[in-house]
Amino acid sequence: TTTPRIGDILQKLAPFLKMYGEYVKNFDNAMELVKTWTERSPQFKLIIQDIQKEKVCGNLTLQHHMLEPVQRIPRYEMLLKDYLRKLPQDSLDWKDAEKSLEIISTAASHSNSAIRKMENLKKLLEIYEMLGEEEDIVNPSNELIKEGQILKLAARNTSAQERYLFL
């Protein structure tokens, strides 16, 4: 009650939130692995069910708990925005809270960027497999810009041939 501040605390902790990007990047894979092993292994499924029944799990599934870190950064960002809206601008915590929001927003965009990169690599892998795995296009520096049907016009007889283009 003497110094009600959170901005300075969050400012010190916010840089650690960037590591959530790695978690978010691997989230879909992790969820798929849990699903696969739950379907494949009755023993794994039973262990997971037993753990989920424990009071400490709060009647939530493993998947719900896995989703929590993905939602954490956007939640912090929303809370800080709301806090700043309600905080008087002459408050001692204003500048620290504003700086914390800036750092957390950067972490959120870092996390979103990691998701986009993984989705891009996933799409490139699908294209690579569609093309018969002849030309290795799966590379973090490659980016799918556009794909779709085009008409190729022959120079000699101006006949049109349908093609599917990956740019």
UniProtKB/TrEMBL annotation:
**One Pfam family in the UniProt entry:** RhoGEF
Could you tell me which residue ranges the DH domain spans?
Answer: 1-114
One GO MF term on file is: guanyl-nucleotide exchange factor activity
Against PANTHER family, the record matches this protein to: FACIOGENITAL DYSPLASIA PROTEIN, FYVE, RHOGEF AND PH DOMAIN-CONTAINING PROTEIN 4
**InterPro entries, alphabetically?**
DBL_dom_sf (IPR035899), DH_dom (IPR000219), FYVE_RhoGEF_PH (IPR051092), PH-like_dom_sf (IPR011993)
Listed GO cellular component terms?
Answer: cytoplasm
Name a biological process GO annotation.
cytoskeleton organization
* Organism classification: Eukaryota, Metazoa, Chordata, Craniata, Vertebrata
Q: Which organism is it from?
A: Daphoenositta chrysoptera (varied sittella)
Name it: FGD4 protein
